[in-house]
Amino acid sequence: MPEFDFDEEIDRRAVPALKMHKLVLGADGMDLFPGGVADMDFRVAPAITDAIAKRAAHGIFGYEAVPDGLIPAMTGWYATRHGWQIDPAQILRSPNVLNSLAMAVNLFSDPGDGIIVQPPVFFDFADIIAENGRRMVENPLILRDGHYKMDFDGLETLAADPDTRMIFLCNPHNPVGRVWSREELTRLGAICRAHGVLVVSDEIHADITLPGHRYTPFATLSEEDAQNSVICLSPAKSFNIAACCSAFTIVPDPERRATFQAENSRLTVNKNNAFASVAMEAAWREGGPWLDAVLDYIAGNLALVRQRLAEIPQVHLIAPEGTFLLWLDFRKLGLAPDDLTAFLRQKAGWAITRGIAFGPAGAGFGRLNIACPRRRLDAALDSLAQAVKAL
Ligand SMILES: Cc1ncc(COP(=O)(O)O)c(C=O)c1O
């Protein structure tokens, strides 16, 4: 018996889990294979449930300070796992990563300013930019020979516009699964510094890398790059605690940090949640072996997808380097986005995230979450194979 049982089917509908909820699946889609929302169907590390149970047993949940051990647990994790020594003085709390991104937009750009994104990319970037009255400036990734790259020439041109103030970097990149290399990030960092474009780097997927790939924290490139960045971190993805954690914003530049801190204070986002605190501390202090086992299991699920897709030549997998999200190319099926969604739902029984949600370049693609029990994934691949055959 392995130490952690990721094959276990757990009824997530016993709680209002979004991934299985009618809000996401649609009232007519409750029986579909839920491969959308980016969390895992695995029970969290025992250390986390133990810490929460112990905290619950205490029985009093009045106002609390941040536990003394939390920030050391966090900095210890990034130092040992990723070789990044985070200066505790640079760490600010935030309710979640999207909040950190929205705060950065509001504080360090003005209405109408351009913010660069590199689609296909996490759809909430576009919403944050639009809802805060900024302009999204697209520098699409280049897909060549089944591999996505950044368009550095395009980036240089867009960054040179004085109205472009910021870039949202997704490192690693949801949904195409790139774990950007040090060389790529260094090039991006240099272009942004040369043109006064602030790098806001969303590193929520940092820990989820596949064998042979290593996450490079943007702030470790150079002191100059660190000073020209705002980094958004959270243990939500790595430890499957999105509903029970907070996020952290690393702001190395002292002036920007003071501005950020003042805004946190003005909006009173500094309150502490007792359960989130103990969950995060337990995750970072004791969750390593669980995460390693999850990464193994995800690599196994990926191997299964590769093996099964070899029988379905119309569906092509973009080889991922990280995240538990696969970017599938369905273009050979020749279906328009709405028809592809209808085909996947009605014929294959799949509810995955539409590729078009990540920008026009996502048309004909879909994002499949493989952080689920293998048997369920295998059954879903059976249904896909049959549906494609019958098409
Ligand atoms: C790249 C990226 N950033 C942010 C988030 C959401 O983060 P949070 O729940 O902390 O706002 C997600 C969730 O899917 C994500 O993929």
The count of helical stretches stands at 14
Largest sheet: 7 strands, mixed
Helix content: 40-55%
**What's the number of structural domains?**
2
Give the ligands present.
pyridoxal-5'-phosphate
Can you characterise this structure?
This protein is α/β, with parallel strands linked by helices and 391 residues long. The protein has two domains: 12-45 and 288-390, Aspartate Aminotransferase, domain 1, CATH 3.90.1150; 61-286, Type I PLP-dependent aspartate aminotransferase-like (Major domain) (Aspartate Aminotransferase, domain 2, 3-Layer(aba) Sandwich), CATH 3.40.640. It has 14 helices and 14 strands. The protein has helices spanning 22-25, 46-58, 70-82, 97-108, 124-131, 152-159, 182-194, 223-227, 236-239, 254-266, 274-286, 288-309, 337-348, 374-390; strands spanning 33-35, 91-94, 114-117, 135-138, 142-144, 147-149, 164-170, 198-202, 229-233, 247-250, 316-318, 325-329, 350-354, 365-369. The strands form three sheets. The chain has a seven-stranded mixed beta sheet with strand order 2-10-9-8-7-3-4, sandwiched between helices. Strands 1-13-14-12-11 form a five-stranded mixed beta sheet, with helices on both faces. The longest helix has 22 residues, at 288-309. The radius of gyration is 21 Å and the shape is globular. Residues 38, 96-98, 122, 170, 174, 202, 204, 234, 236, 242, 247 line the site of pyridoxal-5'-phosphate (PLP).
